[in-house]
Amino acid sequence: MGGVGKTTLVTHVYKEVAKVRFDCAAWVAVSQRFTTAPERTMMLDPLPWRDAWTLFCNVAFRELSCRTCQNHLEKLAVSVLERCRGLPLAIVSVGNRVRLEERP
After folding, report:
1. Which of 41, 42, 47, 74 could form a disulfide with 86, with the two C-beta atoms 3.0–4.6 Å apart?
2. Separation between Cα atoms, residue 104 and residue 87, nearest integer Å
3. CA nearest 57: which of 81, 28, 79, 75?
4. 52 in helix, strand or coil?
């Protein structure tokens, strides 16, 4: 899911929030596929659909007491969530963007 600005977003948050609000902050870049030792490579598994949906709803609709997707947004939310392919950082990033949209 390259080219959608994930690194730019996280870099901005790190510079503007983490370095200001915390005494100690660290930057760690982890891709979907990363090496933990020279001879060992691990693959990060995407979240199962139910967990991905729960994470998205908890982030995007955190102001709502039920933290559930409104009916008129469900089709769009499913489409967006499918494009995140179960990757938690993508889900949280999109969920936060949805949360910041003005609601009628």
Report:
1. 47
2. 29
3. 81
4. helix
Q: Give the DSSP letter string of 65-98.
A: TT----GGGHHHHHHHHHHHTT-HHHHHHHHHHH
Spatial distance between the Cα atoms of 55 and 47, rounded to a whole number of angstroms? 9
Residue type, 92: V
Q: Note every long-range contact of 41-48, with CB atoms under 8 Å and residues 24 or more positions apart, other chains counting.
A: 45/86, 46/85, 46/86, 46/87, 47/86, 47/87, 47/88, 47/91, 48/86
Query: Which residues face 37 on adjacent strands?
Result: 40
How many CA atoms are closer than 13 Å to the CA of 85, on its beta-carbon side? 5
pLDDT digits (tens, 9 = 90+) for 11-50: 777 777 776 776 666 666 666 665 666 656 566 688 999 9
Retrieve residue 36's tokens.
Answer: 């933990």
What value does the CA radius of gyration of the chain take, rounded to a whole number of Å?
Answer: 16
